[in-house]
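Structure tokens please, single chain.
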Amino acid sequence: MVESADALRKRHYHDELAAFAEAFARQHGVELEFAESAVKEIEQRCEAERLTVRDFCAKHLPDLEFGLKLIARNTGRAHFRIGKRFLRKPAEEMSRLVAQSFNRPG
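Here you go.
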């Protein structure tokens, strides 16, 4: 069975995001999971901006490592799910999550 161009493109983005998440976990000790809505958002934006997944993440999620490591340190949480909402306003969402990590009941 031959995959359609659309199916190949979707698989490509899933594979690229999986590789990014794997490298991120190895480098920073934090696991990432991308919701299907986030995968679709990244695919559309990469196509529109002519970026690879790695370049998209570097451009639009530059503080991901620092924010998630801080949250992990504050909460012990080491797995994060990235959704479409996070991708649309990453700085706002990261600030909200970091603030919540400091307000965690102890």
